[in-house]
Amino acid sequence: MRRSPWYAEAMKVAGIVGWPVDHSRSPAMHNAALRALGIPGFYGLFPVKPGSLQAAVAGLRALGIAGANVTLPHKEAVLPFLDEVDDAARRIGAVNTIVRRGEALVGLNTDAPGLIRSLEDEGVAFQGRALILGAGGAARAAVVGLGNQGMQITVAARRKPAARSLLEQTETEGNVVALGDALALRDAFSKASLLVQATSATLVAEGEDPTSAEAFVRALPIEAFAGHALVDLVYQPRQTALMKAFANEPGLMNVVRVDGLGMLLHQGTLAFEAIFGAPAPVEVMRRALLCP
Ligand code: NDP
Fold first, then answer.
1. Active site residues per annotation
2. I want to staple 224 with a disulfide (CB 3.0 to 4.6 A). Which of 92, 189, 276, 277 is the partner?
């Protein structure tokens, strides 16, 4: 029997909604995975200005798009335009993946399970207390992901009320600490088994001065840390000032250090599985993410 040419098969179309979005590595990751699995499909860029989000979601619906990822600045704003939002996305208050279930558009958040998969890859155990630095979107995903694994949670942020409302919003029991409270912060470092750096303070764009990232790290009582793993969610640079400080601190050299690229990869592998309904070819996607 003659096979239909590829263009005659039902092509699954998906893409990433954001503004600006042209820097995104998601098309490279997802298209490489589609090619590797021989799935007829295409993953594109959907640049959507802030005022056009509702119309864009209506467009996804009307065009029968298989699914989409959502990035800045739309991850929070998109919730009211969807038919359903899963529990993790609702607690995090952000959707990064939209899938079609029948006629419904359903919002998911794969950042939290993506973080968990990246830690599992490195053999990190989810026991004891996680100390999470920061109170923004990445910290919310970490709190929900690690809380769901049964870890106790402490959130340390420069604004203590922000840490408190993060716990409230995510419906999580936990402690809060102000980054400026040296005694309480030292105590929190000494009691944590996993440290999660979820502020943007260690982010240093190419060509930027690293001085303030280094100052942020110097102010942390890392020598008090008695746990077994550190993850810095920032992946630019991959070796952040905090990861370097752990590598150079006598007594912390055996701490497992995990960079933020694993979470970026696995939010993508989980989104791929949700949108295209096939197991993600993880190594293919990792190579596509790393190769410019
Ligand atoms: P947000 O802007 O939502 O939050 C940033 C947080 O960092 C806020 O709590 C902010 O505090 C805090 N912060 C910034 N500068 C400092 C500082 N000098 N000292 C103390 N706290 C500081 O960003 P996101 O949460 O979305 O992202 C945070 C980082 O995580 C980003 O740099 C991003 O690269 C990374 N990320 C990585 C992902 C991955 O897949 N690996 C996914 C998502 C994010 P305040 O509110 O007081 O300003």
1. 75
2. 189
pLDDT tens-digit profile, the chain (292 residues): 555 555 556 789 999 999 999 999 999 999 999 999 999 999 999 999 999 999 999 999 999 999 999 999 999 999 999 999 999 999 999 999 999 998 899 999 999 999 999 999 999 999 999 999 999 999 999 999 999 999 999 999 999 999 999 999 999 999 999 999 999 999 999 999 999 999 999 999 989 999 999 999 999 999 999 999 999 999 999 999 999 999 999 999 899 999 999 999 999 999 999 999 999 999 999 999 998 7
Phi first, then psi, for residue 38 (nearest 5°) are 70, 25
How many Cβ atoms from other residues are within 10 Å of residue 217's Cβ?
A: 21
Pocket of ligand 1, candidates 159, 200, 217: which has the most ligand atoms within 8 Å of its Cβ, to mutate? 200
Closest atom of ligand 1 to 264 CA is 40
